[in-house]
């Protein structure tokens, strides 16, 4: 046993050691929290750098798509109420009415078709990703217009597989009117990938969901006059060559027609492709010439009017939206049922392709002079040779005898009448009535 002095000394030594251990461990803790803090700061800085400076389009696109994905999937979470809304919108209000999923429902042709279907008592559910290819506020305005008629548009992408399967699970669609696409002939030079994503991957994704559905819906979808590409026979008939597309847009639409063939062959999906010819009218697309010519003429800006390399006028078979809507409804009404179910083919199914044009090409110069008359304003025309490498063709002209025979399709609106209706809508929508020198005469 030691003396009290020894004991007291050893207690003090022990206390000192404990103190030193505590100080050291605090130092260690401080050091490791500092390290952790610095690491977190570094990671945060790297993330901020990546999002803000390094890959802005990628980071933002990812953020938006994740946001949309979460939005779509949050619907699944509160699924009861959401599913009820879907079914309500999709339920027909007439005996034997169709139950139609309209993709691209906030688009130009999609919104008109959705409204026409709803008005005659069919059930309609829309799907649209509201992308910013052109002013999304116009798409929102179309959505609001449809909402007044009890048509719901789900915000989501064709490439969102769980969402597509969910929609087809919740509603037993008899038909899909597939109009969602990356449109525009010349924009394909600037953003080729968007055409592949929407017009090929998106279409395949939709067909995959449709082939697995039970019952399989019949599908009517938008192809394009541009598939005629370098074809020189005139007017364009469905029997002519379509293996020489002049733009990536046209190539993706032609690919769609071939993909439709394979899904029809393998799974018994009923598929009808409609080749639209330069569709125009109220609620139209701001990226199209008739639309931005109107804007530019009213603003006193110059417009480029293309001519062919030989100095000839460029012409289009401009087709009025109401005629196109009748063609789409005719195709839906005559579509036979798909033959398969749950991913298995049970027999041969219908496979069709039709031109939907106006059968009366008009030179672009004439389009401009009609607009000048309606707007009471002289255009500052800048006539230039058509850019040779942007996929544009010199003229289009539809033979619609097949669509007339099978769909009772008969276009009735000439360009002056249709443009008058468009201009009337345009000045009303953009609140320009008072700035025009005279009222737009009624049709
Ligand atoms: O039928 C289709 O399948 C396609 O129709 C539409 O393409 P296009 O017929 O090319 O329409 P659009 O661009 O309005 O040019 C019209 C005319 O104006 C000429 N044009 C064009 C631009 C310009 O600045 N000047 C000009 O003269 C131009 O040379 C052309 O002669 C759809 O956009 C497309 O999505 C697809 O559906």
What do you see in this structure?
Mean pLDDT is 87; it is low at 1-9, 18-33 and 47-67. The chain has helices at residues 4-54, 56-77, 79-90, 108-119, 136-147, 161-170, 192-212, 248-267, 289-298, 321-334, 364-375, 401-407, 415-429, and strands at residues 99-103, 123-128, 152-155, 175-178, 218-224, 271-276, 279-280, 302-307, 315-316, 319-320, 351-356, 362-363, 380-385. The chain starts with a helix and ends in a 14-residue tail after the last helix. 49% of the residues lie in helices and 13% in strands. The strands form four sheets. The protein has a seven-stranded parallel beta sheet, with helices on both faces. Strands 7-10 form a two-stranded parallel ribbon. The chain has a two-stranded parallel ribbon with strand order 8-13. The longest helix has 51 residues, at 4-54. The protein is built from 13 helices and 13 strands. It is α/β, with parallel strands linked by helices. Among the domains are: 31-77; 181-435, NAD(P)-binding Rossmann-like Domain (Rossmann fold), CATH 3.40.50. The site of ligand UGB has 19 residues, from strand 8.
């Amino acid at each position: 046993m030691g003396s009290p002095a020894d004991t007291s000394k050893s207690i003090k030594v022990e206390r000192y050691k404990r103190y030193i251990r505590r100080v050291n461990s605090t130092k260690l803790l401080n050091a490791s929290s500092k390290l952790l803090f610095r690491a977190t700061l570094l990671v945060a800085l790297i993330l901020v750098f990546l999002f803000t400076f390094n890959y802005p389009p990628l980071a933002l696109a990812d953020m938006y798509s994740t946001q949309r994905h979460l939005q779509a999937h949050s619907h699944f979470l509160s699924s009861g109420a959401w599913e009820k809304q879907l079914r309500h919108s999709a339920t027909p209000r007439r005996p034997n009415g169709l139950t139609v999923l309209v993709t691209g429902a906030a688009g130009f042709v999609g919104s008109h078709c959705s409204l026409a279907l709803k008005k005659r008592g069919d059930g309609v559910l829309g799907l649209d990703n509201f992308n910013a290819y052109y002013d999304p506020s116009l798409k929102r305005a179309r959505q609001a217009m449809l909402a007044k008629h009890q048509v719901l548009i789900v915000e989501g992408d064709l490439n969102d597989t769980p969402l597509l399967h969910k929609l087809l699970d919740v509603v037993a669609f008899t038909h899909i009117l597939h109009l969602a696409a990356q449109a525009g002939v010349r924009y394909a030079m600037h953003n080729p990938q968007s055409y592949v994503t929407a017009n090929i991957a998106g279409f395949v994704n939709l067909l995959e969901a449709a082939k697995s559905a039970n019952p399989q819906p019949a599908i009517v979808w938008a192809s394009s006059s541009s598939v005629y590409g370098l074809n020189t026979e005139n007017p364009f008939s469905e029997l002519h060559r379509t293996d020489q597309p002049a733009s990536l847009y046209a190539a993706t639409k032609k690919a769609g027609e071939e993909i439709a063939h394979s899904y029809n062959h393998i799974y018994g999906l009923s598929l009808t492709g409609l080749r639209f010819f330069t569709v125009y009218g109220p609620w139209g697309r701001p990226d199209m010439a008739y639309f931005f010519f109107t804007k530019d003429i009213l603003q006193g800006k110059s417009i480029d009017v293309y001519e062919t390399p030989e100095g000839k006028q460029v012409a289009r078979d401009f087709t009025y939206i109401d005629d196109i809507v009748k063609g789409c409804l005719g195709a839906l009404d005559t579509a036979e049922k798909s033959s398969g179910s749950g991913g298995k083919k049970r027999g041969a199914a219908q496979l069709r392709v039709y031109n939907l044009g106006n059968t009366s090409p008009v030179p672009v110069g004439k389009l401009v002079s009609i607009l000048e008359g309606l707007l009471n304003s002289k255009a500052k025309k800048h006539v230039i040779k058509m850019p040779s490498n942007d996929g544009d063709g010199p003229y289009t002209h539809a033979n619609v005898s097949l669509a007339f025979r099978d769909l009772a399709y008969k276009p009735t609106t000439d360009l002056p009448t249709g443009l008058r209706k468009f201009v009337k809508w345009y000045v009303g929508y953009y609140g320009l009535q008072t700035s025009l020198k005279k009222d737009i005469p009624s049709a």
